[in-house]
Amino acid sequence: MSWLLDLYRTYESNLGQVGVIEKRFNDQEFTLLPISHTTQNAHIEVEVTEDGEFHSAAVVPKSDASTLIPCTEDAASRAGAVTAPYPLHDKLSYCAGDFAAYGGEIKKENPFDAYIENLRKWAESPYAVPKVKSLYRYLRKGRLIEDLVREKVLYVDENNRLIDKWDKALEEKHGVRPEIFSVMVGGPEALFVRFNVRTAGGFTRKVWDDPDMFESFIRYYAGELGDPDLCYVTGERLPATEKHANKIRNAADKAKLISANDKSGFTYRGRFSSATEAARVSYDVSQKAHNALKWLINRQGKIVGQRVFLVWGNDSLDMPSPTDDTWSLEDLEDEQPRIIKSNTLKELAREVDKALDGYRNRVSERIDSQAFILLLDSATTGRMAVLYYRNMDKELYLKRLAKWHSTCAWLHRYQRNAAGEFVSFFGAPATKDIAFAAYGPRADEKVVKGLMERMLPCIVDEQPSIPRDIVTSAVQRASNPVSMETWEWEKTLSIACALVNHKEGKDVALDKENTNRDYLFGRLLAVADVLERRALGRDEKRSSNAIRYMNAFARHPARTWLTIQSSLQPYQARLGADGIYLSRIIDEIGSRIDPREFNDKPLTGLYLLGFYSQRHDLFQKKEDKTADEPESTNEEERSE
User: Fold this and answer.
1) Is the pLDDT of residue 625 over 60?
2) Distance between alpha carbon 194 and the CA centroid of its chain, in Å?
3) What is the pTM of this model?
4) How many Cα atoms sit within 13 Å of 576 on the Cβ side?
5) pLDDT by residue (tens digit) across 432-471?
6) Dist CA 471 CA 367 (whole Å)
């Protein structure tokens, strides 16, 4: 249960964030929930005076619907026909005493009776604050719907029954469609109502944003919990719980990490006679650990197909994620990433360390400074599992991250800067991009998140090699450029090179001394591609013969090269002196291949490194020339 303990300690270390509203990049609001509280989307807001009289009501805009509400164990787990009211804010069928009088269907057990009794106990307890008492005095009158109808928030028909759907007949009779029908789903009984108290001097803090209200219910509900028992997480004797939180990934998430509800049939799979024999977790630990987890997911988690990838630190929450690429690995205080100018693996290693210094500098003097990596997913709507969890020394984690970014590295050109322009960066690709490179941009979410999970041991645990099937798949797709758009192929090519380079350890710069057969065949293909492209000119968009035959070349290099070389003759003649220079490069590369190895044995992924480096070298020389500088016919000048 180390993940529960680590999350519990994270909550204890961030008590100052409890109830503080934050926003992420998508402007979605979230907060670190107080214990015994949860969130719900409200549809109606009712204001009450300090004397317990109705003041006003309005429909809540969707942008302001999220509401922090007190919550009991039973309410958090209620489903179906179970009657388990929330302590204060709740659905109309619970908190309206006149719900039946306006045509609402009442179960055998009246929800309002249970609701108002629970609210009475809180309002009459020693921990009740004035706002709770004001709301209780109003709600016990049982006329909420009457007030909402008079306020023209809800509407009734000629039989004094609540209207659950606004149709054309009603529109012709009453005019414009009321606002409430834009938020109503499933009938009036499902409308969620939140309450506020208007003081004589105006508003202080709203009920759902008032720390005094939080503390009032927490202290009251603590007295309602059971007897102390041994908590397996902390080792302390505290009131235990068997009902643990859901809504972990989002407000509609019903999956739980801890549950025990198979008391009939396969009772705990025959291992235990009761749930507490398997594990005892205290209410306090369960609430704080789950609330910390929800907060961290909202704050910095990555969700792919409902699978959560989460990384955080115990003394500094913000940590670089192993799923990100090197472009994203900048210090949080920098406006622009810095790792974009490296040319060699050694330079890259230095720049990665420099980028990670910002995270290191925020590490406190604590000797137990740790980083936590957590993966969650659910197989069903009700069950969630921890798929991967590591807690490790933060410095060790940063070292392993730095090693990954400086070994699985290549030159990429698919990221955009703040101005929306494509920029180059040297480093490791993101694990999600690796999935798309290996299986295509339309790969199933299960495949993508599965690959991302499989890559984690390579990054965090220093697994010596990337799974072979991933590398093979990426190399095969990169060897088939005609099957995709140019930009997609270029991205796939550079990512495949990075995966191959994780084992090879090559720089992007052309290695002219490399005599490896596969590397040399890759160089040949690159020169053929550049030669034909230059002969065709910039206006010609069709692929070169080298690109069209690339897939066949990877499988049968010697035989396919004869076809490619024979197709080069008219382009060599068209280029003249420049064609002679490129032809000489082809001759030089061919002379380095051992005649015994000039055969049709399939090429390994190393040929992509030779192809990319040779093509990059030729493009660089072309770009280094000024626009008005003529092509030199002197071979010595070219080699400079």
Assistant:
1) no
2) 31
3) 0.86
4) 5
5) 999 999 999 999 999 999 999 999 999 999 998 999 999 9
6) 39
Radius of gyration of the chain (CA): 33
Taking 70 as the threshold, does the pLDDT of residue 503 lie above it?
Answer: yes
Quick: pLDDT tens for 270-323: 777 777 777 889 999 999 999 999 999 999 999 998 899 999 998 888 889 999
- Cα–Cα distances (Å) from 100 to 86, 108, 154, 159, 429, in that order, read 19, 12, 15, 13, 60
Residue type, 70: P
One-character DSSP codes across 522-586: HHHHHHHHHHHHHHH-TT--SPPHHHHTHHHHHHSHHHHHHHHHHHHHHHHHHHTHHHHHHHHHH
**Would the pLDDT of 338 be above 80?**
no
DSSP class of residue 481? G
235-256 per-position pLDDT tens digit: 999 999 888 988 899 888 889 9
For 156, what's the count of Cα atoms within 13 Å in the CB-facing half-sphere? 16
Going from the C-alpha of 264 to that of each of 95, 273, 384, 495, the distances in angstroms are: 34, 11, 21, 52
342-350 contacts: CB < 8 A, separation 24 or more? 342/426, 342/427, 343/426, 343/507, 343/508, 343/509, 344/507, 344/509, 345/406, 345/407, 345/409, 345/505, 345/507, 348/405, 348/406, 348/409, 348/426, 348/427, 349/402, 349/406
Q: Is 267 exposed, middle or buried (0-12, 13-18, 19+ CB in 10 A)?
A: middle
Listed as own residue / partner, the contacts of 450-457 with beta carbons closer than 8 Å and 24 or more positions apart are: 452/304, 452/307, 452/309, 452/323, 453/307, 453/375, 453/387, 453/388, 455/322, 455/323, 455/431, 456/322, 456/373, 456/375, 456/388, 456/431
Task: Find the distance separating the first CA and the last CA of the chain, reported in whole Å.
Answer: 63
Please state, in angstroms and rounded to a whole number, the distance separating the CA atoms of residues 51 and 131: 10
Q: Is 437 helix (H, G, I), strand (E, B) or coil?
A: helix
DSSP 234: T
In the chain, the amino acid numbered 243 is: K
Contacts of 419-422 with C-beta under 8 Å, sequence gap 24+, read none
Q: What span, in angstroms and rounded, lies between the C-alpha atoms of 169 and 155?
A: 14
Q: Judge whether residue 623 has pLDDT over 80.
A: no
User: Which runs of E-coded beta strand occur in 404-537?
Assistant: 410-416, 422-427
**pLDDT tens-digit readout, 135-193:** 999 999 999 999 999 999 998 888 889 988 888 778 777 778 888 988 888 888 889 99
Structure-token pair, residue 370: 């740790």
Q: What three-state secondary structure class fits 223?
A: coil
Q: Which helix (H) or strand (E) holds 228?
A: strand 228-230
At 544 the pLDDT is: 93
Angle between helices 2-13 and 283-300 (to 10 degrees): 80
- Joined tokens for residue 9: 């300690």
- CA angle (22, 294, 240) in 5-degree steps: 130
The C-alpha atoms of residue 317 and residue 370 are separated, in whole angstroms, by 10
Alpha-carbon dihedral 457, 460, 465, 468, rounded to 10 degrees = 40
Where does the pLDDT of residue 629 fall: very low under 50, low under 70, confident under 90, or very high at 90 and above? very low
User: Are 554 and 522 contacting, i.e. CB atoms less than 8 angstroms apart?
Assistant: no
Rounded to whole angstroms, how far apart are CA atoms 181 and 200?
Answer: 32
Among 65, 57, 229, residue whose Cα is nearest residue 151: 57
